[in-house]
Amino acid sequence: MKTYKEAHRPASDFESRSEYLDHELQIMKPKRFRLNLPGRDFRFEWEDIVPALAGTLGIIAMYSSVMMAWANGLSEAWDHVTLGKEFAIEVSRVEMIIPAFLFVILASGFLNPRANLAGNHGPMIPLIASIALAGAHPLALAILIGVLGLLLSVFKLGSRLVDLTSKGVAGGLLIFLGFTGAISQINSIQSWGMGLESETVTAGSMGFLGLVILAVTVILYSYLARIDKRWLAIPAAAAAALVIALISGAGFDLQFTTEMGLPNLNPAYWWGSTEEGWMLGLPTAQHFIASLPFAILAVAMWSPDFLGHRIFQEMNYPKKTEKVLMDVDDTMTMCSFRQMVGTAVGGGNITSSWGTYMIPAAIAKRPIPAGAILLGLMVMAVAFLGSPMDVAVWPPVRCIALLVGVFLPMIEAGIQMVKKSTCAQAAGVCIFTAMVTNPVLAWALAMFLDNNGLIGDKDRPKNLSIADKFVIPLAILVVCVSAVFTVGMFKGIYGIQSFL
């Protein structure tokens, strides 16, 4: 059998560019956990620039949003903690250098091109406020997510969790998280517009600006969806929001304060003291208990996320390309290690399969490795330059990128899952429970009721084993309820209001 290098033919041998890209996918034979080299095992093509650029823009906005959410939530939850924009930018830069080099360039680019890049867990972003208020610790959460993810990957239980969470429950969870997250970003951008004030602008006089940006975003997003170019939503909408804000005279609010260079890469600075970095110190047993239900939910949501990205490849790749499709278990392994390592060195991202890279890569008919290397280099360059991070955390750019890149797709995906009346019933119970309590407990309770036929499809229990109906769902429910009561998550209101 010919190797990739022997089977490769120049693009001039094919009638179209599409045929050449199809042939490239069909002849690739990526090695698993062995060295893959450019020229010998894969090639760089200009199409790799598109997913690399989209993934870079998407991850900058998402990383900065995650860190800003941690900064705001922890500042509210802890009396001695005061974190702001500068902290969020520096932690984001840490996440964009060490993990990008280890788990994007080396892992997915050279060592295992079948493992999709470890990026950001979009559905968890609207939960960070609740995570912080519950008394969780970012490092404790990362360790738990990493350990649970490794257990799932080793025992190949990812598909089991997919089966346990029906489309109705998953759809309800996505709709709730997408809705609450979207409302939060809409309120943020409108508050930003109302709060603009300078020597020439009176506070409140530019309140219309937020509405204008949102209106343009809706039109642009709808158009891109119409022409099947929604993978361009993040860069296109973020750029449009930036231009509109600058043209409208809001540029005085954009401050370039981040200097070129490397952030503090010493883990002891971030976690070794309560007066530096996160200002939280090392996690205690109480922190692990508070983080556990959110870690379970994060890992439970990995499998459908991973499978969705793989299916997107299957929809766009030609036949006989099974060897280049992302491996769900290998991706879970990489995400688990990346979660623990990235946070241990000072980060705070909640990781998952990198959708803003995979979706455009699949559309462009490109495999993982070449684009991963380009993306990793772009991300590290942005982190070193510094000033692009100031643009990324500017409210009109950050909020719009999250709206079109995370929350609107979550709502759409949730609605698509809820097609039958039985699914709608399960989704309704999940949404209502999340409003009354919190999304973690809502997912656990709805899954238990649904798997036993008490809500949703009454025939569903007939196709499940005793373990799937009672043992696993009940165990997860008991763990979540115990953790919720232990950390006092029912103090105050943890429904929709906690996200606004």
Automatic annotation (TrEMBL):
Instruction: Say yes or no: keyword Mitochondrion present.
Output: no
- Record's keyword terms, sorted: Membrane, Transmembrane, Transmembrane helix
Ribonucleoprotein recorded as keyword: no
Q: Which InterPro entries match?
A: DUF3360 (IPR021794)
Where do transmembrane segments lie in this chain? 49-73, 124-152, 164-186, 206-224, 231-252, 288-307, 368-386, 392-411, 423-449, 469-490
Pfam families from the xrefs? DUF3360
**Know the name of this protein?**
DUF3360 family protein
What is the protein's species of origin? Aestuariibaculum marinum
